[in-house]
Design brief:
Layout (H helix, E strand, L loop, with lengths): L5 E4 L13 E5 L2 H21 L4 E5 L6 H14 L6 E5 L1 E4 L9 H8 L11 E2 L7 H17 L5 E4 L21 E4 L2 H7 L12 E4 L2 H5 L3 E6 L5 H9 L17 E6 L7 H4 L16 H15 L8 H5 L4 H7 L2 H14 L21 E6 L4 H15 L3 E6 L9 H17 L6 H16 L8 H22 L6 E3 L17 H14 L3 E5 L8 H15 L10 E5 L13 E5 L1 H12 L19 H18 L7 E7 L16
Parallel strand pairs: 2-11, 3-4, 3-7, 4-6, 7-10, 10-11, 12-13, 12-15, 13-14, 15-16
Antiparallel strand pairs: 1-2, 5-9, 8-9, 16-18, 17-18
Helix pairs in contact: 1-2, 13-16, 13-19, 14-15, 14-16, 16-19, 17-18
Length: 660
């Protein structure tokens, strides 16, 4: 039995008729989706074992299947799932790539799965990234032969890239393609750049199973999470079948399922605009207030009309007959939605001192969690300044050091300053400091791309980010004693790939919350962060709040999610809109500029967006204001948007990985 919150056919016509056999399962979380896939795999392995047969698995790599592998390891350790009858074939490997490199898929699979289960080493097959070029073609033919000799792949796990690639089958890959050496698309290399500390260090080629090899599998499960996957998933699932999007060939497979979280499914028609397919109850929706608001705002923006100018013909002619039949006249709907959107606008994010209920505290204690040292000012700098100016007791908690996002040259520049400072003030330096600084210089001189920084260099980079964060927070008005550096352990690996969220991470967050006992918490809901740090940091906050659920102060604590660095909230999602004047936009920009190490060109700017972070933030804030204006609401220079978090879910029963 599936625990998906929504299931529907993969490709539907406007009459809601299923045209293909693929199904889509939408889950509340990535862990829930991965648990569902793990159950299918476990059932397959056990069924094959009872019959004395091998279970042949096709495996994927990357951050997406990490929760899946964690669950399979848990099933092995705690529920006796044996992998002795399992044969595995991995999809791909970079070429050239030594197997022990940090970015190697050989290493990833060992660390994520193979070292923790009892799969026989001779049953593991991964493309060889060490082959000479002249040996690759023969190896690929042999790889295909080994899959055939194993009886074919029973269960193939897939992720999806922003180009629509499955494996490394880039745009243009034929349906009949087999295992081969392929040149990577630039978008793919940009997406991988953070793992390799820069695009120039990403291999240009890879060995990959072909589309035809993948489609030969008897069962296929594609898993994908996050808003950044939503556009390509819509093309893969609902678009035409085309070599331009290799994943679209999955529509032709008789047994394929897509396991998605809500964010990844966000652009699919049954999720985004189910009214275009007929009665929305077929897709798990009902005409409650959130769905009604989403439909009315969609209609207004589609037609370029303010909300209050929509008429019944507009609803009838654009698939919303059911809405007005259920909820009443267009006139009344328009007014209700307009008033709801109007109430989101406030210049007092902590509440007005002269307009609050008698029992509402003022000033409030506020905690702003910032995953990286600059997310607070990038995403909600204007609101942060207002909260401080309006007299609230504002604390900022920087969850990670951000040390890997500092260029070596920047670190050396600060080392030079430290040397000059020590020379100018001899009592502040000494031989130990000189030795450390010289060691850092020697390390950087021989450092190779992708090497982990020495502990001393990591510390210097962390201090750079820390001083920048202090300067930005001070500019915004945060008191020095209210700036907290949590340095969550999961982040401090020195690598782009982090450890799993652990008990210490959660305890550190919970201790801060217990110490401050905030009336408001602001947290990053910007889950398109390509490094995954935002997602892990939010999970730490959620779990800490769950554990503190019995504290008296929790009942009065509001939790707000912000975005801005990678994506912005859609108008129908917004619960609080804080308008910014032109002067406030300038002040927010100057706060961001305090992060000099991220200025001009950040080390990890994310794929396919050449703008600096301050430019992205201003553009998104401006665009939100433009959307409000188009809907007939007041016109502002910019708006920072927030979503109020709903009730906390029940505490997890699964043990937390200690992440160390």
């Amino acid at each position: 039995m599936s625990d998906a919150v929504l299931q529907f056919p993969g490709k539907v016509s406007t009459q809601a008729e299923a045209l293909h056999q693929c199904t889509v399962s939408v889950h509340d979380s990535s862990s829930s989706a991965c648990a569902a896939v793990a159950r299918e795999i476990a059932d397959l392995i056990r069924d094959k074992a009872r019959r004395g047969e091998k279970a042949v698995l096709g495996l994927a790599t990357g951050s997406t299947p990490q929760d899946l592998y964690d669950e399979l390891v848990r099933l092995h350790r705690h529920e006796g799932l044996s992998f002795r009858n399992v044969v595995t074939f991995n999809l791909d490997e970079y070429w050239p790539m030594p197997p022990d490199a940090l970015q190697s898929y050989h290493r990833f699979m060992r660390e994520s799965l193979f070292d923790h289960v009892d799969v026989p080493p001779e049953s593991i097959h991964i493309p060889d990234g060490t082959l000479p070029r002249e040996g690759v073609a023969a190896f690929c033919e042999e790889y295909e032969r080994r899959i055939r000799d194993a009886g074919g792949i029973d269960y193939q796990i897939l992720g999806i890239g922003r180009t629509g690639h499955i494996g490394f089958n880039e745009p243009g890959s034929a349906r009949t393609s087999r295992t081969r050496l392929i040149t990577l698309d630039r978008v793919t290399r940009l997406d991988a750049a953070s793992d390799f500390f820069g695009e120039r260090n990403v291999p240009r080629q890879a060995i990959t199973m072909g589309v035809g090899t993948i489609l030969d599998a008897r069962r296929i499960a594609l898993i994908a999470f996050g808003e950044h996957k939503a556009p390509i998933l819509r093309r893969a699932i609902e678009g035409e079948v085309t070599p331009t999007v290799a994943a679209s060939f999955l529509q032709e497979h008789p047994r394929v399922a897509f396991f998605l979280d809500r964010a990844a499914a966000g652009e699919l028609t049954p999720v985004k605009t189910p009214w275009l397919l007929g009665p929305i109850a077929r897709y798990g929706s009902r005409w409650d207030d959130p769905t009604t608001r989403r439909a009315v705002l969609w209609l207004a923006l589609k037609l370029g009309k303010p909300i209050l100018k929509l008429v019944e013909e507009d609803y009838n002619e654009h698939g919303l007959q059911e809405l007005i039949a259920t909820r009443g006249r267009a006139y009344d709907l328009n007014i209700d939605v307009f008033k709801r959107m109007q109430r989101t606008i406030t210049g007092w994010p902590g509440g007005r001192p002269d307009g609050r209920a008698q029992e509402e505290p003022y000033p409030k204690r506020v905690v702003v969690f910032s995953p990286h040292p600059d997310d607070d000012v990038i995403s909600m700098g204007g609101t942060l300044i207002r909260l401080c100016e309006q007299g609230h007791d504002v604390h900022v908690a920087y969850q990670t050091s951000g040390s890997i996002a500092v260029w070596d040259d920047e670190a050396l520049r600060h080392c030079d300053f430290a040397s000059l400072f020590a020379a100018a003030f001899p009592s502040a330096g000494g031989p130990d400091a000189d030795r450390v600084l010289e060691g850092i210089r020697r390390f950087v001189a021989v450092k190779r791309p992708g090497d982990i920084d020495s502990p001393e260099l990591q510390r210097v980079k962390a201090l750079i980010r820390r001083t920048e964060a202090r300067a930005a927070a001070a500019y915004a008005g945060v008191k020095h004693e209210n700036v907290h550096f949590l340095d969550l352990p999961f982040y401090e690996t020195g690598r782009v790939r982090k450890a799993r969220l652990g008990e210490r991470d959660i305890r550190i967050v919970a201790d801060l919350l217990e110490a401050v006992r905030p009336h408001q918490v602001y947290a990053a809901g910007d889950l398109s962060d390509p490094h995954g740090t935002h997602r892990v940091c939010l999970a730490a906050i959620d779990e800490a709040l769950r554990r503190l659920a019995d504290r008296p102060w929790i009942a009065d604590c509001e939790v707000w999610h912000y975005r801005g660095a990678w994506q912005e909230w859609e108008p129908h999602e917004i619960d609080m809109a804080v308008p910014l004047s032109p002067d406030e936009v300038d002040r927010k920009r100057f706060a961001i500029f305090r992060h000099q190490s991220q200025k001009d060109k950040a080390l990890f700017p994310g794929p396919n967006d050449p703008r600096e972070f301050w430019q992205r933030a201003e553009d998104r804030n401006r665009n939100t204001a433009v959307l409000y204006d188009k809907l007939g609401l007041p016109e502002y220079q910019a708006i920072e948007a927030f979503v109020r978090r709903g009730p906390l879910p029940a505490a997890r029963t699964r043990d937390s990985d200690d992440g160390e």
